[in-house]
């Protein structure tokens, strides 16, 4: 794990771009105090992130310098206000999970790691989360869950570390892709709901999130 929060955010964005979860849009943030967080700027090059492409924002969504945050900065601010224990937020536009939300099709749990993010709530509007009202509605939809899917738009994950948020975003996308491709061959053999708690207990561990992070970070070099 990087020592400096600025580099941790840059690493997170690099990982998510290469995993197909962020593209030329999308963002990752990390809380640095009770009332402020760091986030990549709206103009940042997600494929070549450097610390100078970050800005400081307060939990009301107000930039604390000259650099302009992304249009959806309120998405992050609303989560930090609603969840004082939340330390990290990622928002991207993954292909496979978004395909399911476009058709209101439930995503079956077909890989063990997906038990950690099974049956995420779906925010039923596809518009940009660029206003306070929309952001608060989305945060209310997510509640205390680790993430929320945005119908026809993307995904959001909010956890205590960026390593966990990034790992959950990757798990969700891998599971959705496997479920989609399996459906082309027949009925996917989903993991039974009664078995989810056992997988959750086994897989909800910082060391495993770090393992996922380290693999994808190394893969991009």
Describe the 3D structure.
This protein is α+β, with helices and mostly antiparallel strands. The chain contains 7 helices and 7 strands, in the order H-E-E-E-H-E-H-E-H-E-E-H-H-H. The protein has helices at about 5-20, 75-80, 95-100, 130-140, 160-185, 195-205, 205-220; strands spanning about 25-35, 35-40, 55-60, 90, 120-125, 145-150, 155-160. Helix 1 runs parallel beside helix 5, helix 3 crosses helix 5 (about 160-185) and helix 5 crosses helix 7 (about 205-220).
Concise synopsis of the structure shown:
With 221 residues, the protein is α+β, with helices and mostly antiparallel strands.
Beta-strand residue percentage: 15-25%
Largest sheet: 7 strands, mixed
Query: What's the rounded overall pLDDT mean?
Result: 95
Question: Total strand count, please?
Answer: 7
CATH class: Alpha Beta
Helix content: 25-40%
Strand order within the widest beta sheet:
3-2-1-4-7-6-5
State the domain count.
Answer: 1
Query: Gap between N and C termini, in Å?
Result: 16 Å
The geometry reads as: globular
Helix and strand succession? HEEEHEHEHEEHHH
């Amino acid at each position: 794990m990087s020592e400096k929060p600025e580099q941790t955010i840059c690493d997170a964005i690099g990982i998510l771009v290469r995993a197909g979860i962020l593209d030329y849009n999308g963002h990752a943030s990390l809380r640095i105090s009770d009332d402020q967080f760091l986030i990549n700027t709206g103009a940042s090059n997600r494929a070549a992130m450097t610390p100078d492409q970050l800005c400081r924002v307060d939990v009301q969504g107000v930039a604390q310098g000259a650099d302009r945050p992304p249009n959806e900065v309120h998405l992050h601010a609303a989560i930090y206000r609603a969840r004082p224990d939340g330390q990290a937020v990622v928002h991207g536009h993954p292909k496979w999970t978004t395909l399911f939300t476009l058709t209101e099709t439930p995503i079956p749990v077909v890989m063990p790691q997906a038990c950690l993010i099974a049956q995420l709530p779906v925010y039923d509007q596809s518009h940009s989360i660029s206003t306070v009202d929309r952001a608060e509605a989305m945060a209310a939809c997510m509640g205390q869950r680790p993430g929320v899917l945005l119908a026809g738009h993307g995904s959001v994950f909010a956890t205590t570390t960026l390593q966990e948020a990034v790992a959950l975003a990757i798990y969700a996308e891998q599971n959705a892709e496997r479920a989609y491709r399996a459906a082309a061959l027949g009925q996917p053999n989903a993991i039974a709901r009664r078995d989810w708690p056992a997988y959750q207990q086994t897989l909800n561990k910082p060391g495993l999130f770090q393992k996922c992070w380290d693999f994808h970070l190394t893969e991009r070099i």
